[in-house]
Amino acid sequence: MVHARITPWSYPAELDDLKKWFYAAKTGSGPKDERTRAIQRVKCYQSKGSQYLPHVVDSTAQITSAILLDEKRCAEKSSDILAVRLSYTMALIRFVNGLLDPTQQSQFAIPLHTLARRVGLSSWFVDLRHWGTHERELPSLDMLRTAAKEALEWLWDHYWNDEELEEEESSSDEQEDTDTVKEIEGLILTGIGIEDALIENRWVWDSGNRNLISNSNFEVNESTGQKKFMAISPSERINDYVARIRGLWRQEPNRKSFVEACIKNYSSILLELFMAKLSRFELELLSSVAQSYEKQVNGEKTSLKQKFPNWNELKRKLLKKFVATINLGMLATQWGNWESTIEAHPSYVVLWLCASILKRLHETNNQLPMRKKRKKRQNENLIELETKLSQLIQRLSKRFNDSDAKLYDLSSFKTTVSHTPKNPNDGTSDILDDLAKLRQRLTKPKTPAQEIKLWNRYPQWEPKPFGIL
Questions:
Q1: Taking all residues of the chain, what is their mean pLDDT, rounded to a whole number?
Q2: Is the entire prediction scored with pTM above 0.70?
Q3: Which GO terms describe its cellular component (predicted)?
Q4: Least crowded by CB within 10 Å, which of 15, 45, 59, 421?
C-alpha cells in the first residue's frame, strides 16, 4: 500500500503554481515575473515545518533568491558584490549537500564525486562546494551565475518537469519493487564501502581460507577504556553484512534485481563474496550476462555495456574473475541447471565461459593423481563434467567463433547508424559496401615478411673505456 505523507501544500495544484512561477519561460505562463511570489510561497511552507518541505523545492527558492539579488544589484548599479557572491555560494552549497548527503548510506564515506555521478549531477558542483566551504576566496561571480543556471536546469529536468508531479497513484506492487531495488542498491554500496575490510579479513567469509592467519591474530588486547570507542569489529561487521544480503537473496523475485545491481556497481571482491555465500548466485549471474549480451548484440542498451564498454574489458574484469571463482565441485552437481540456461541463451560469451571453465578443469584433473584420493566421487564428477563441457563446446563452436566478439564492440554503433537517413534507390549498393568494409575491418591485415637478422661477432674488436677513441 502507498503510505500517506504530510505535505505543506493543501492541493497538488499549489505545487503546479510554483512550477509556473519559478519557470515561467519553460511553462509559457506569461511575461509577468512571479519568482518573488514563488519564494514567498515557499517561505510560507517552511513556517509549517521545514521537515515537510522537499529539498528540491527549498533549493529552487534559495537559488532563485540569489539570482534576484544579483539582478537587483545590477539594476541599481551597485559595486558591492560580496553579498551576492555569499548568497550564491550558500545556496549552491546547500543544494549539493541536500542532494548527496541522503545517498551517503555506506558504513564508510563514499567520495562525493561518485555520489554526484549516481544522481546525474555534474562533478564540478562538488568542486564548487568544496571551494565555497574550505577556500579563503569565494568563487567568481561569473562562475556562480553559471552554476546557478545549471542547478535550476538540473532541478527542472529531475523534478519540476516530471509529468507525475502530482501525488503518484502507483500500485502497492510497484511501490514495493521500487523500495526493494533501493534496498538492494544500498546494500551493494554498503559492500563497496567495506571492501578494504573484506580484503583484510578474507578468512571470515572465504571458506577456502578458513585457516588463513591475518593480522588480527597478532593484535594486542586494548584496555576497556579504549574499546568503548570501537563500535564493532570487522568480522562482526562482515557477518552482519552477509546476513543482510542472504535475507534479500532468499526472496526469489529479488534475485534478478540483485544481479543487475551487482553488474551496475561492479566490485571484484563483492563478486567473490556473493559467489561464496549466496546459493545459485553463479547461475543467476550467468543467465543475466548471457541475456544482456544477446540484447546488446541486437542493438539494445544494457547495464552490462555501460559498465564494460568493450569485450576486452568485460573479459578481463568480469568473466575471468567469474571463472576463477567458480566452485567446480558445486558446478558438477548443478550442471543440469547450467546446461538448460546455456541452451536457452547460446552466444559467444557462453562459449568463451565454457571454454575457460574447461581449461581450468583440465588443470584441476591433471593434479588429481598427485593428491590423496579421498574424494573419489568428487573427482569422478569433475571428469564427467569435463566430458559434458567438451561436448557442449563442440556444439557451440559450430555456431560461434572468436570473430563474434567484435559484435559486442560494434553494437554501440548500431544506434547511430540506424538514425542516418538512407536513400531507397541505392539501398542494395550501400548494404554491399558496408559488408565489404566490415569484412575488411575484421580480417587481419597481412604484414610483409621481415628479414631476420642475427648478431655476429665483430672481428678484431678490442674493448676500450668510454671517451677513448
A1: 78
A2: no
A3: Las1 complex; nucleolus; preribosome, large subunit precursor
A4: 421
